[in-house]
Description:
Blueprint: H1 2-29, H2 31-51, E1 55-63, H3 73-76, H4 88-95, H5 98-108, E2 112-118, E3 121-124, E4 131-134, E5 146-151, E6 156-167, E7 170-181, E8 185-187, E9 192-197, E10 208-213, H6 216-226, E11 227-231, E12 238-245, H7 248-306, H8 313-345, H9 349-352, H10 366-385, H11 394-440, H12 444-479, E13 485-488, E14 496-499, H13 502-527, H14 534-540, E15 545-550, H15 559-562, H16 567-581, E16 589-595, H17 602-614, E17 620-624, H18 632-635, H19 645-649, H20 655-658, E18 660-661, E19 667-670, H21 679-683, H22 687-698, E20 701-705, H23 714-719, E21 724-730, H24 736-748, E22 754-761, H25 776-786, H26 792-797
Amino acid sequence: MANNMETFDKNKSGDEIIYVKEIFQRLLKVWYWGVLFGLIGLTVAFFVNKILTPTYEISAELYAPDKNNGMGVENIFDVTGIVPRMNIQNHIGILSSYSITRQSLENLDWRVTWFEKDVFGKKDLYKYAPLRIENFNPLLNLPGIYVNVTPNGNDYCIISANDKLRMGGTEKDIQFETKYKYGDTLRNEFFSFVLNKNSGRSIDQEKKYIFVFNDFNKLARDYQRKLDISLVDPEAEIIKLKIVGNHPEREVDFLNEICDVFIKFGLNAKNRTSENTVNFIDSQLSGIVDSLQSAGRSFTNFRSRNRTIDLSQQAGLVVERLQELESEESLAKMELEYYQNLSTYLGDADRMEQVVAPSVVGVTDPVLNAMVVKLSELYSKKSTLTFSVQEKNPSLLALENEIQYTRHTLEENLKNLINNAQFQLNSLQQRKNQISSQLAQLPKTEQDLINIKRQFDLNNELYTYLLQKRAEAAITKASNVPDAQILDAARIETVIPLGPNKMLNYILGLIMGLGIPGIIMALLFHLDNTVKSKEDIIQVTSIPIIGTVGHSKRKEELPVLTEPHSGVSESFRSLRTNLEYLGKLEGNKVIAIHSNIDGEGKTFTAINLAISMAQNNKKVLLINADLRKPKINSIFKINNDYTGLSSYLINKSKIEDIAINSKIKNLTIIPSGPIPPNPAELLDNGNFEKLIHKAKEHFDCIVVDDSPASFVTDAVIVGKYADINLFVIRAEITNRDHIKMINYFRDLGTMKNLAIILNDAQSSLYGYSNYNSKGYGVYAEKKSKKNKELPVEEALSS
C-alpha cells in the first residue's frame, strides 16, 4: 500500500511538472502578447512615475536634558526659585501643539503658495516663483481657491479662476477671468491684491502659473497632523521631529522654524519670572527714590539751619532703636502686601505667572516658597498640556485636581501668614510708641533731627535692599539658557526620498504587463476542457492510442504524396507500422475511421493512411461512407453527382460502376455519391454489408471514412462491419467529454477493436514528437527541401 501511494505521489508530481511545462509552452506561442502587454505595463509605470508627486522624509533632532537637578549657571543664579522646569514629555506636548505650529507658519509667512502647471499636474514653486502677491488683506481674499495666471506679454497676464467654495454647507461657484497689468490692483468680489514680478526670475510665456491664498487654520492643522515627534530612545533625552512632504525645501524650513519657535517659547517662559521680578522692584524703587531724595534734602537743610552736626549719645540710641523698628515695619508691610496680592492671584494662572518670588520681599518661609514653586509648576504644566490634549483628558483632569488641592493649602497658609504679619505690625507699632515717648523727652532740635534722619536712613536701606534684589533678578535672567537646543537641524543633504520608487514601478509594470496575458492564458488553459496530450486521453479512457499525427504548419490535404519526407508523412507511416506490428492486418481487414465531431481530421487521416498503405504495395480500397458531408470527392476531384456509394445502396449502380481507380498505384476509391435524404437507413439495408464482403475478395485493406459519431448513427452501423475502429481525436479541438462516447461504444459492444489516433499533436512533452520541430522531423524537413515537393495534381499522376 505504501509503495502504491509513493508511486501515486510521484505520478502526481510528474503530472504537475508536465502541466506547468505545457502552460509555459503555450505562453511561448503567444509571446507577442507578452511583449505588447509588457510595453503597455512599462508605459503605464512611466506615466505613474510622472503623475505621482514625489514624497520625502525630513528630520531634525533636539537635545532637551532634564536640568531640575543640574548645576548649570542658570540653577546657580536662580534666586527666584519658581522658574518652571519641563520634562521630556512636556517638550513633546509643546512641540506638537497647534499654537507652536501656527506661530511657525506665521513666521515663515506662507500666506500664498505658487505652482507651475504642467502636463502631469502642478509643481510647487516654493522660493522660485517668478511672481509675487503684494498689498493684500487676508480678510478680502478667499482662501483655498486656485487662481490661474497665464502670461500675456511682458506687462500683462490673464488672471482667471474656476473653482468651488463650500460655505455654510452650500457650494459657491468662483468664476472670473480678466486681463491684468502687473503692478495694478485687482479687486473683485472674491479678491483684492497686487501682482508683481519677482526680480531675478524670468516668466516663461509658454507656461501657466497657479497661486492660492492659504487658510492658516487649515494649514496649521495639516502640519500639526503630519508632524511626527518621538524620542530617539526611551532612555534618551533627544527628541526627533520627522515630517513627510512633497517639497523638501519647504519642509526643511518648517522643521527649523518650529525648532526655533519652541526654543524661544521655553526661554521666554523662564525669562518671564525674572522680568516680573525686575518690574516689581522698579515700581517700588520709583517711589522710594523720590522719598530718599526728599529726605536727604530735608536732612541737609536742617543741619545747615541749626548748625547741628551730630546727636547726643541718648538721642543716638533712640534713633538707632527707632530705625530698627521702622525697618522691620517696612519689611512687614511689604510682606503683608505680598501675601494679600498672592492671595488674590491664586485662582488666575496668567496672574500667577506675574507673581515674584517670596524671597524678593524678604519672605524666607520654606513652606511658602515650596508651595508657590509647586503651584507655578502645576500651572505651567497645565498650560503645556492644554496644547496637545482635550479638556476632558484624564491627565488634565488629574492635574486640575492637584492644582485645586495645592491652591487650597496655599490659601490656608496665606491666611495664617497674613494674620501673623498684621500681629507683627501691631507689635512693632506699640514698640514704636514706647520709643516715641522717650524721643519726646529730648530737646526739640534733636527730636526734629532724629525724625528727619530716621526717614532718610529708612529710605536709604530700602533702596539698597531693592537694588540688590534687582541685580539678582537681572543676573538670573541673563543666566537663563533654553531648556532645549538643536542637535541636528533639518538639511536638504539629509532628506530621504520615499517615493515614488521609479525602478520598482517599472518592475511592477513589467510584471503586471507580462502577468495579465499569462494569467488569462493560464486561466483559459485551466478552463479549457479540450484534449491536448496523450495524458489527457489516458485520464478519461483505457482504449489504446495506436498512433499520433503531428502538427503541420502547411495546410496540405495529402502530405503523404506532396511532402513524402515531412514529419506528418512519417507519422502516417508509423501508424501503418503500428497496425502491422500489432497484427491487426492479417488477412483482409476493414478499418473504419471515426470521429466524434466534425473537424477532428478523420477524412484527412483516412486518405493519408490509405495512401500510405497503398505505397506499401497493398491493394487498398478507400470508401467514402460519409453520406452527409463528403470531402474525399473534392480532394480527389471526383464527380460525385451521379454515382457512388449512395447509388449502390439503392441498387442503382454496381460495384464496378462506383469503384474508381485513382492515379495512385494500388489505391481504389468509392465516392459517396449523391447525398441521400436517409443515409442511416441506406447503410443499414444490407447492401453495405454485401459491399464489404465483396471488397474483401479483391483488396488487402479497406479504409472507410465515416460520419461523426456524436451526431448520427451512421458510425455505429459502419462500425459493425469494421475489423478495426479508429477514432480520431484532435488536440485542442476534441472535448474530453467526447471521449466518453467512445467508452460508451466499447461498453455497449457495438464496435470491436477500438483504438485512438491523436491528430495535430503539438507538444513533445508527452512521449510523441512534433514532427515539424524536433527529432526525426527536423531531418525529414531538411530532406524534403532537397527533394522538390510536388503539387497534388502531379503527385496523383506520378
